[in-house]
Specification:
heterodimer, A: about 200 residues, alpha+beta, outer membrane lipoprotein receptor (LolB), chain A, 11-stranded antiparallel beta sheet, 11 strands, B: about 800 residues, 5-stranded antiparallel beta sheet, about 5% strand
Chain lengths: ~200, ~800
């Protein structure tokens, strides 16, 4: 019980830390367009990542790592290599998850709860502001080269599970994605070095 | 009018009223399956039952086109909501995940009875560790968001496992509703309460969709006005076919009646005679419908369409009366009577056909021709003195005779014609007959294309392949279906088949449920194993208390039975795939091919082998209840069935021709009989060759058309035979034959332009055939006919 509360506090703290640089005044929409355009200039991206998930159900954080690959406009692949291989592909609004020989597919339109998890990153990388606006209400902050997008799900069912997706970066580069769930569970995905395409 | 005349008129009026009463009370259908055999084998019974009322026959595909995607989605969701409240529909799906949520709740509640992963090994310490470990991994992925709320109660992931087993169709979605892959149509699937063969019920269902759509559009701003509704499915086809046949029957009979009336007016120059000519025609049509209505439970639309064709033949009788020679009763009537009896003999051969449609045509023709002839004989002459004399057509007959005498020089050419026709038939023998049942379908090609497009969009199973398991015992049938499903699952994994559906996914056999319950350890034992399993896993046993209590509840839960499925989204799926009656339980497992491909011959072979092996194993396991399992390919079975009945129709027609021959041979000398038959046979062969050369494949209605050629043509040949034997007024007889023939050719010729394939086939066969039959009969008539008048 106390462990859980501790983790919650730790989670809130880590969020606060991440949010701290974003105290700068909100930017005009034009600045967001400018940023999205500069990110979208890259049609393909391939990079390593590490992720840490904090879940109240589990006694310790879950760490994983792998590769992220994006092909404009709507194919996002997350390949988990450690600790257990798994491939997630979001393409044309369909999420397919492959573990071993088994592939499960989900239509994001049928699962509005899941849509924000990957759609935020995909739409940001694609520079697709319309898609972002459709799924989230956006708060955009910027200080010098650093920027942060606070994305709160619009869909009521999604909002019951998910409080906010926060995407942060420097200039045209996305640095990390944080997901804060309604029950306090949260995760931080950090994008590392670029890999050969 | 004489007293006899009044009496005849009175009897006629009473019979006509009676027939009209019967015809009005009759039930009409346009469903092709109603045309199918009435006494098939067990396998064929399953097939026709499936075609008539099965799952596939109840599918109504709904597409919304035009406008913008958002409006389409809104109207589609609204339409689905309206239809869900309509008892005419068992189920309406539009991609709304609400239905999915409802189903998940049911699956969660019964997970330990439904999941085939529940085995004793699964609940050992090692089994639990592996399953819980997998679920923990799943929590890290996006689906973890959905799995998380279930984790404490279902750490072994049974609910997701069941969901994975469900073969949900992969349909694109746009704005929350199903959409075609190109995003231009919003899609819904409805399952009607009415069977596909219940054309009235299907028509009501279609109208209900149209009304609901109109209401959904009206409830929205102007943008929705641009939307268009498209419907397809077997029931829609049946409705379209019935409408099409009805409108064509009306239009074509009106057109041919008009043309024949113009011809007769020109011939008779008497309106009264014209009107009287149509009395036997109407009497024949009425008698035909009444006879079929009495003899069969349903009158088929095609039979009704056949009524139009009878105008062409029954109109002849009155023409012979009005245009033909004097002393009609002594000289003409015996010829007509023999011709009529010959036709009746020919059509009687169709009566024993197990192909309902063919038997209906036979009965219709017999009743219709007999009624027309009898009215011409007993009623019309009573009225005849009341009317003015008709025009004398002797000059026409004289001119015809002169032309025919000249044409006789070319009669040697007939042998050559026969030879050529024979060669053409020989060359086309491989592709002479149509083999597909759908060739009978009157549904326009554009509608069939729309259907194929929507099916592709929806990935809707065209339910062509079915595994069918039957047993007197429900539990044994389900158990055997499970054994078959087990092997089908391996075939799916091996990509031999794309997938399959089974009611045992939602309603496992009692044996399987009991086995699963027996796999669940008692509470203390489970707690101990769980504690052991969780060593090294990042979760403590305390969090999984709900799991322990749920397992204990499942251990003591009563068996899941059919009534408990009521109200769940699976009820309709099970209802469609499982039929339980006190005598027999039948389980259907529809098989779908690997996406975008047909099921190959070798795949089908593997499925058959798997089903045979499964039923063998099941029999060895639980001997008593007789279980049968077989694989049905609905399309090839239906086509095979059709081929079979085509052959039967051909055989029966030949028998009919034989019956006519025998009748003629009995009443005439063999030489005379041959002389009567030769021109008719020649006409049939030449027409068949002509159709084959034109690339038309012969179907059942062509065969019936040929029977009609002989029926009509025998009259002509018999007239020449009479002229030869008894002499007579050659020009007047010729004139009456010419007028009668022209009327027949008009009557059938109009049909040749019908867009209903079966009617067109009849027209294209009989119209040229009747013309040729008269021409050949005249050319082959004995010299005496011509020389007497020379």
């Amino acid at each position: 019980m106390t462990g859980r509360r501790m983790r919650r506090i730790a989670g809130a703290l880590s969020c606060a830390l991440v949010l701290a640089p974003g105290r700068a005044p909100a930017e005009t929409p034009d600045a967001l367009d400018e940023l999205l355009n500069s990110i979208a200039a890259r049609r393909h991206a391939h990079a390593a990542y590490t992720e840490v998930q904090y879940r109240g159900l589990l006694d310790r954080p879950h760490e994983s790592s792998g590769e992220l690959r994006f092909d404009a406009p709507d194919r996002l692949e997350k390949r988990v290599l450690e600790p257990k291989p798994e491939t997630l592909v979001l393409e044309h609004g369909v999420l397919s998850a492959t573990r071993g020989h088994h592939t499960r597919t989900l239509e994001l339109a049928a699962w509005p709860q899941l849509a924000p998890l990957l759609e935020g990153l995909r739409a940001t990388l694609a520079g697709d502001r319309a898609a972002l606006e459709r799924v989230f209400s956006i708060r955009f902050e910027r200080s010098a080269a650093h920027w942060t997008l606070h994305l709160a799900p619009r869909d009521a069912r999604a909002a019951q599970l998910l409080r906010e997706v926060t995407i942060a970066g420097d200039q045209a580069k996305v640095a990390n994605v944080q997901i804060l769930e309604a029950d306090g569970d949260h995760s931080v995905l950090t994008i590392g070095r670029e890999l050969a395409p | 009018m004489t007293r006899a005349g009044w009496a005849a008129t009175l009897v006629f009026a009473m019979l006509a009223a009676l027939a009209a009463g019967v015809a009005l009370r009759a039930r009409y259908t346009a469903d092709l399956s109603a045309f199918l055999p009435r006494a098939p084998t067990e396998r064929q019974r399953l097939l026709t039952e499936e075609l008539r009322a099965g799952l596939a026959s109840r599918v109504l595909m709904i597409a919304i086109e035009g406008g913008d995607p958002n409006t389409r989605a809104q109207v589609a969701a609204d339409l689905a909501g309206r239809l869900r409240g309509d008892p005419a529909f068992i189920e309406v799906s539009d991609g709304d995940p609400g239905g999915f949520a409802r189903s998940a709740e049911f699956l969660l509640r019964h997970r330990y009875q439904l999941s085939d992963a529940v085995t004793p090994e699964h609940f050992t310490a090692d089994g639990l560790r592996a399953a819980i470990g997998d679920t923990i991994d799943l929590l890290a992925s996006p689906e973890g968001l959905l799995a998380k709320p279930l984790f404490a109660a279902d750490p072994t992931g049974e609910t997701l496992h069941i969901l994975d087993q469900l073969d949900t169709p992969r349909i694109a979605t746009l704005d929350g509703v199903w959409s075609s892959p190109d995003g231009r149509r919003a899609l819904l699937i409805a399952q009607t309460a009415a069977a596909g063969s219940d054309t009235d019920g299907q028509q009501q269902a279609s109208s209900a969709v149209r009304r609901a759509f109109a209401a959904a559009v009206a409830a929205r701003p102007g943008a929705a006005r641009a939307l268009a509704l498209r419907l397809s499915g077997p029931g829609v086809f049946a409705v379209t076919a019935r409408e099409l046949i009805r409108s064509q029957v009306l239009r074509l009979s009106a057109l041919s009646a008009l043309l024949i009336a113009a011809l007769l007016l020109a011939a008779y120059r008497s309106v009264a005679a014209l009107l009287l000519t149509f009395v036997p025609v109407a009497a024949g049509a009425l008698a035909g419908v009444a006879a079929v209505a009495l003899g069969f439970p349903l009158v088929h639309g095609i039979t009704l369409g056949f009524g139009v064709t009878l105008i062409g033949e029954s109109v002849d009788y009155a023409i012979y009366l009005f245009v033909g020679a004097a002393e009609w009763r002594q000289r003409v009537w015996p010829t007509i009577r023999l011709g009529m009896l010959t036709s009746v003999c020919g059509f009687a051969a169709l009566l024993p056909s197990a192909f309902q449609g063919l038997a209906q045509l036979g009965l219709y023709s017999i009743a219709g021709l007999a009624a027309a002839a009898l009215v011409t004989r007993f009623v019309l002459p009573q009225w005849r003195p009341q009317i003015l004399r008709t025009r004398d057509l002797t000059p026409l007959g004289t001119a015809l005779r002169a032309a025919l005498v000249k044409a006789r020089a070319a009669r040697a050419g007939l042998a050559l014609l026969a030879l050529i026709a024979g060669l053409v038939l020989l060359e086309h023998r491989a592709a002479l007959f149509s083999r597909e049942l759908t060739d009978l379908s009157p549904v326009p090609l554009a509608d069939q294309e729309l259907d194929a497009r929507l099916r592709a969009d929806l990935g809707a199973p065209d339910a062509r392949y079915l595994v069918v398991v039957t047993s007197p015992d429900e539990g044994a049938a389900l158990q055997s279906a499970e054994a078959a499903a087990e092997r089908l699952r391996s075939l799916t994994e091996a990509q031999v088949i794309g997938g399959f559906e089974s009611p045992t996914r939602y309603l496992p056999s009692p044996a399987a449920q009991r086995a699963r319950q027996a796999s669940l350890p008692p509470p203390a034992e489970l707690a101990a194993r769980l504690k052991q399993a969780l060593v090294g896993l990042p979760v403590s046993a305390a969090r999984l208390a709900p799991f322990l209590s749920d397992v204990e509840a499942a251990r003591r839960a009563p068996l899941l039975t059919l009534p408990e499925l009521a109200g769940t989204p699976f009820a309709s799926a099970v209802a469609a795939l499982l039929s339980v009656s006190p005598a027999v339980t039948t389980v259907f497992l529809p098989i779908s091919p690997v996406a975008g491909r047909e099921l190959s011959e070798s795949s089908l072979h593997e499925v058959r082998a798997a089903v045979a092996a499964a039923s063998g194993a099941a029999r060895a396991l639980a001997p008593p209840a007789a279980v049968t399992a077989s694989v049905l390919d609905l399309k090839s079975e239906a086509d095979e069935l059709y081929s079979h009945y085509l052959v039967q129709a051909a055989t029966l027609s030949v028998a009919g021709l034989g019956a006519m021959l025998v009748l003629l041979a009995v009443t005439r000398s063999p030489v005379r009989a041959l002389r009567i038959v030769a021109p008719l046979a020649l006409a049939v062969v030449v027409v068949a060759a002509g159709l084959a050369a034109a690339g038309e494949r012969l179907g059942i209605l062509h065969v019936v058309g040929m029977l009609l050629i002989v029926a009509v043509g025998s009259n002509y040949a018999l007239f020449f035979d009479r002229l030869d034997r008894e002499g007579g007024d050659v020009p007047r007889t010729l004139a009456s034959l010419a007028v009668a023939n022209l009327a027949t050719v008009i009557g059938f010729g109009v049909l040749a332009f019908s867009s209903v394939p079966v009617l067109a086939a009849l027209g294209r066969t009989t119209a040229p055939g009747a013309l040729l039959a008269l021409l050949f009969a005249a050319l082959l008539a004995p010299r005496a006919v011509w020389s007497e008048a020379a």
